[in-house]
Each structure stands twice: as structure tokens, then as C-alpha cells.
Amino acid sequence: MEVRALASVNLAAIERNVGLLRRSAPTSQLCAVVKADGYGHGAVQAARAALAGGAEWLAVATAQEAVEIRGAGITSPLLVLGALTQSEVQVAVGAGADISAWSSEFLDRVVAGGGARVHIKLDTGMGRLGTRDQQLASDLAAVAAQSPGCRLVGVMTHFATADERGDGFFDEQLDCFSQWSAPIAEANPGLLRHAANSAALIRDRRSHFDMVRPGVACYGLDPFGEDPHAQQLEPAMELSSYLAAGKPCEVGQSVGYGRTFIASSPTMTGTIPVGYADGYKRVFSNNGDVLIGGKRFPIVGNVSMDNCSVDLGLNSDPVRLGDKAILLGADGGEEITAEELARQAGTINYEIVTSVSGRVPRRYHRDGAKVGDND
């Protein structure tokens, strides 16, 4: 290992995932969501890979994320999904990004500021951003379509339970959006209707409309939190470190803060220099595995800020100091997926990859062939 910890990102996997999603919604444009630094994978690199895989649009959450994409020379259509202050509107519009709107006051300020490319958001049940008032949403669409300097580009919503198979609320939201948006689309030729996140894209073709907005699936994560390979998705990130130290641990001896692991029989323990400051969560204390040489070794003791420990045992095949240790990814016939870690942590796979911190360098490759960090 050249560094103590490394997040290796396979850009070819992102391209293939996007290509798969593209083929799953052949009559819709595809908007790849690259917010939160490309779900921890690197926003600019993920954006380029997604576009190479067939995406026509990109989406981010903040104005500054839009600036980062444009600063890299990426010129594809770009949508800011999140709420914006007045100053952030100017930043986003200055970056050539579309913005989302759902209130009269906000849209009035946009018009007064010179206009923008606008997508009107109807809240069909997510309960966060967007207006629940269908008439207001229709009126806002009309204002955006008729105001000088503004352009009504799209109408949109977001699903609350698309990742819960069989949940009827998804169908309620879908029907609500479909019925509300149909007359607006008829009155505005070329308007983009869009609603589908990764789960909806896979789950129901009725949700595809004119554009789909996959996020987590672009990175090879299962939007249903189960098995990405069952969806023919390829996880793009590997988080690795190395075995930095090893020592005998006799009966009664302990490992880590709080002595939460005390050996009941003689063993060998090893230290891997990755901890919760790197995004490897403390909840994995005595609750997870690491791959070394294609075999699983259990985490023992509390995960600390910069280190975690594993039980190497006495009878396993020998491991050596410096051996690669994989905390997320595959080695031989074994694999630790973000979905597995999420189940152990009581969270979702999104949080696993976005938690990998900035002090862990990202290295980019295409199926093992290295590419530049700015590729």
C-alpha cells in the first residue's frame, strides 16, 4: 500500500451501470445524480463516467456542486435539485444550471433576478421540498413558461417508498404526478416530466416519463438494499488498507478502547489503520469482517478514530504484515458489499459510501487500468 487507506473507484463499472439503466428506460432521457461528491466516488469523475455510459443530464443538490461540475469543463444539462437561497440562485444560474422551484415568492425573485431555466416540483407525498398544492404548482409552471428570461424546462416529483416493493403509496404518488403533469406537458411541447429515482426506474416503467434520475444505482448499489448483483449492477468502490501490526493475544488480554473484546482463548490480533474518521463506522466494533488474502477475519474491539483490529486466529493460513485488507469490496471468492455493511450498521448503503471521508484518497481506474485523478 502506498497510503494507509484508499478508495479505489472503477469508472468502467459506473459507465456500465449507467448503460444498463439507460437500456432499462430506452424512451426516456437519463439524468445521473452526482450530488454528495458523486455519492463519495468523486463528482467530476463520476459525472464523466456517467455521460460516457449514456447519461444526457446530470443532477446535484447544491449550487456549489454545480460550480464544481462546470469548473471541470462539463457542459451537459445540469439540474440543481435542492433548496437555494437568493445568492445561491445566482451562483447556480451563473454556472448554467437549471433550478427547482415550488413557491410563488421564490419564483418571483428568480424572475426579478433575470430568470432561469426552471423545473416545478410537486410534492406528491415525500413531504420535504415541493408544494402539495396542485393548483399552485400549475400556476407556477405557467408563470415560468410566460415570464421573460425564464424557461419552463420540466416538472418533477420524488418518491418516498419506491424502494419498498409492494408498497401502495408509490402507486398513489405515481398516479398523482401523472394526472397533474399531463395537461402541463400537453400545453408545453418538449417539457420534461421526471420522477423516477433508481428504485422507481427498476421497479415500474410507468415512472419513466420523459427523464429518469438514478443516483445510487449508477454506483453499483442496490436501491432496494439487498444484492446489487441481482440487479446486474457492479459496485464501483473498493475501500482498502493494510495489515499494519500483529501480536499474540493471550486469554484475558483485550483489544481497543473499553476492553469490549477480551480473548477467551489464545489468538493473534492485527491492526488495520482505518477508523471512523475515515468513514469506517464505530458501529462495526465486534460487528463486521475484513478480507485479507480472500478470507474473512472478524473485527474485534472498538473501532477507533484511526484504527481497527481483527482476530487473525491461530490456525488460519498465515497472513503477513503489509498484506492488503479490504473493508468494502471483493477479494477472491469473498465480497463485502455496502449492503452488508449497511445491514450491520442499521442504515442504508447510501450512507456507507458517502461516509468515506475526504482524508481517504480516491484512485480511479477502468477495470484495473489506472487513469489520472482528473480523468
UniProtKB/TrEMBL annotation:
InterPro entries: Ala_racemase, Ala_racemase/Decarboxylase_C, Ala_racemase_C, Ala_racemase_N, Ala_racemase_pyridoxalP-BS, PLP-binding_barrel. One of its GO terms (cellular component) is cytosol. SMART domains: Ala_racemase_C. Signal peptide: none annotated. Keywords: Isomerase, Pyridoxal phosphate. The keyword Isomerase applies. GO terms for molecular function: alanine racemase activity; pyridoxal phosphate binding. One of its GO terms (biological process) is D-alanine biosynthetic process. Its cofactor is pyridoxal 5'-phosphate. Residues 236-365 form the Alanine racemase C-terminal domain. The keyword Isomerase applies. HAMAP family: Ala_racemase. This is Unannotated protein. The lineage of its organism: unclassified sequences, metagenomes, ecological metagenomes.
